[in-house]
Structures are given as structure tokens and as C-alpha cells.
Amino acid sequence: MSLIVPFILQKHEAIKAGTHYDLRIRYPHKNKLASWAIPKARIPKSSNDRTLAIQTQDHDISWLKFSGEIPEGSYGHGFVHIIQKGECEIIQWTDKVISFDVKGQYMDGRFHLIRIREKLNKFQKEWLLIRARYES
User: Fold this and answer.
1) Is there a contact between 51 and 114 (Cβ–Cβ < 8 Å)?
2) Distance of CA 89 to CAs 2, 28, 81, Å?
3) What residue ranges do the domains of the chain occupy?
4) Mean pLDDT value of segment 114-124
5) What tens digit of pLDDT does each residue of 44-64 get?
6) Rg of the chain taking only CA atoms, in angstroms
7) Following DSSP, what letter does each residue of 30-50 receive, concatenated?
8) Is residue 58 classed exposed, middle or buried when 0-12, 13-18 and 19+ CB atoms within 10 A define those classes?
9) How many helices (H) and strands (E) does the chain have?
């Protein structure tokens, strides 16, 4: 599979959950965004570097442009800033592995999302975000 889809990386200064990144990638064949919270706002920078990514609920496609305040009383209350947006090339997308290429300042190269554990509810699954050796 090789397919170009939109993605966004947002810095989320959430009142309850603290500061983290939100990575959102449009599903290859539906108009929704798969979403992951990346604690500690850390993107892997070198080959085989990894960090935890917790899958959250799918988001509406309108989140590709969202920057601003999530109001008090709403899920994720706090401020959201766009860090990087554009397109990524999906290399593989299965229930347990997502591989994609992206070019930009914060995320640049090939990344793998590898599912490692189911959480207590159907939305929160633990994944590893791994920076791979870039192969063009």
C-alpha cells in the first residue's frame, strides 16, 4: 500500500492531562482521523528511538485545521496549537502496525506505530511510535 493522506501534529496543553502532542492521521479509506496522544510531547528523533502513543477516539476531519481553546467542561479542555500539518505517505496500515513517511520540522522520515497493548476501553490502546531508518 502506498497512499498519501493528510495528517496533523498538535501541541495540546490540556488542563487535566497535561502538555502532550496529538498525532492525527486520516484513515486510508474513511473520512475520519485516527488519533494518538503522545505523552511528554516527545517525537522520536533518531533511528529506532521510540515513545509511547496512546490511541484515543477518532476525530472529525475538521481537526486538521483546529488551533485554539477547547472550552471548560469539554473533553480535552485546554489549548491546542498546530505544530506541523501536511500529508504523509502510508506504507502499511493494519490493526497492529501503521508505517508512514512524512517530511517536516518536527516529524521527518519514516515512522512506525506498533500496537503493544489494549487498554480498559475500546478507544485507548497503547502503541509505540518508532522512528525508523528512512528508506526512500
Assistant:
1) no
2) 6, 10, 23
3) 3-131
4) 73
5) 998 889 999 999 999 999 999
6) 14
7) SSEEEEEEEETT----STT-E
8) middle
9) 0, 9
SS3 27: coil
Query: Which tens digit of pLDDT belongs to each residue from 2-27?
Result: 899 999 999 999 888 889 999 999 99
* Cα(83)–Cα(69) distance, integer angstroms: 15
Say which amino acid occupies 93: W
The C-alpha cell that represents 130 in the structure block: 518508532
Classify 1 as helix, strand or coil: coil
- In the numeric block, which cell numbers belong to residue 11? 501541541
Written as one string, the DSSP assignment of 63-106 is GGS--EEEPTTSTT-EEEEEEEEEEEEEEEE-SSEEEEEE-SSS
User: In the numeric block, which cell numbers belong to residue 21?
Assistant: 502532542
